Predict the structure.
Amino acid sequence: MKNTFEEFGRIRAKSGAGDNYITNINEIETDGFGPTLNIVWLYPDIMCLHGGRGDMMALLRVATLMNISVKITRVNSLREKIPFEWADLILLGSGDMKCVPDIVEALKAQMGGDAGVQPGADASADAPADSLLGFIAKGGTFLAIGSSGAALGRDYDLTDGSRHTGLEILGMDMKYRDLVYGDDVWMHVLETSSATAESPLGGVEIVGNQIMVADVTLLDGQEPFAKVKYGRGNCGDGVEGARVGNVIYTSCVGPALVKNPRLAEALLVNAIEATGAYGSGDDAGAAGSGAKTIHYDPLKDADIEVELQALEELKNFINSKI
């Protein structure tokens, strides 16, 4: 089994030295068993704030602990073709808001239909398999963290006062704040009525940080991602993020998946189950005809003991502020 952190350390060192070959590396693999879970790491050299590389390291590490074979493909250039048909899970990290208009244009060119079509709508079912709407229609899991969520929403503005329109996949607006907000956040993922079955994400506890340059307002009918126990959430209204089916936005950083390995586990299982690949034990092989079967082991507390202890310490600190 490859050492995940040594692999990423090697890539980061050569990237820092200006080695373009490593900066543009296409695939990183773990040695689990069975077919691979395919992950697209979208624009990591553009959206690269708040330790976002750590989120991919966490996914890779947790997958290894769960004996899931993972293949990660980086899409570095806005002009590059995104392998939507190949992908099971897409991660778009946090970055500078000024980059969002270019990302919107890049994704719109590979949308596969009109912007503003909600996931699950009839039009997305007819979208080409190698398009963003085709990826959504098959149940692919798309996680946008931080400011990158603006690309998936409706309207957002920039520091110069200009107003822009996103892909309108999620029903939310982002409005720039006069002051940057930063604090801890503690929340639990909500079940969503737009999911076709009970989601592995429902009820998962998340503890992290928010560094928000914009307030988020959900439009009528748009469900949040999580219920907030402590923190500002979207705009101080007790909820955080947005979700339609398996398209998810959260403002939680930290990095979120490093601090919350159970969230990383739930995302991996959600991606396995949602795209037709299916679970472990007696359920293995229960997927529909033609679906790949990905076996996995549940993540053990003993494997993430340090992270769980750190979470308890952070929750104790937050409780002292409540």
Q: What stands out?
A: Residues 18-28, 119-123, 278-290 have pLDDT under 50 and may be disordered. The first strand starts at residue 27 and ends at 29. The domain at 4-319 is CATH 3.40.50.880 (Rossmann fold).
